[in-house]
UniProtKB/TrEMBL annotation:
Gene Ontology molecular-function annotations: GTP binding; GTPase activity
Full protein name: GTP-binding protein ypt3
Topology of this chain in the membrane: Lipid-anchor
Major location (coarse): membrane
PANTHER family registered for this protein in UniProt: DRAB11-RELATED (PTHR47979)
SMART domains: RAB (SM00175), RAN (SM00176), RAS (SM00173), RHO (SM00174)
Keywords of this entry: GTP-binding, Lipoprotein, Membrane, Nucleotide-binding, Prenylation
Amino acid sequence: MANDEYDFLFKVVLIGDSGVGKSNLLSRFTRNEFNLDSKSTIGVEFATRSIQVDSKTIKSQIWDTAGQERYRAITSAYYRGAVGALLVYDVSKHQTYENVTRWLKELRDHADSNIVIMLVGNKSDLRHLRAVPTEEAKQFASENNLSFIETSALDASNVELAFQNILTEIFRIVSSKALESGDSSANQLGDRKVVEITKTPDSEKKQGFFYYMYTPTGHADIKTAFLSSSSRSKAILTIDRKL
């Protein structure tokens, strides 16, 4: 299959403190590589990989955001348009786990309210240095409506499973909403069919929408729009681009 052939395109961001292994999770999933001398990410990097879910080709754009404070203004702009996020901490460094709360707040402040979030405890191979109990992290994830998994980019444990799970969850949600929307919510936009998927209104918050743009070639590109409760105006934000 050619690299540009896909049915859906999802943007997923990796966030968390510098040094927790975000870049190696990205390289392990997209290229099956691990770099012991991995340097801190400068700004933002991304890579792609396609997987199969229910006979559909899901192309993922995985964005690796810098964890250093000096890049906060740069990376926060990249939350926009993401439909999934892996919030990563280092199981051997409790401070990186404590900072998860701040990262989660930043994510929810900048990302769409419908974003699917997975808490990831990385470096599970460092058993003798573990500082974050698995059950503690599981409880935090449950209390904050996050999925949870522990991984090791070094030995590849659960890396594939983590990305497969979050991409599958996004696909299931999107597919379910598409079925619920029915034909009544489909509109014509040139030669593309737009399927609007809405969330239950909240009078005080910005509302999130998913859009599928079905092209003549059969590709379905995820779009995101926001509906302001005050202005009721829409601004469609494209989150994908042919690579």
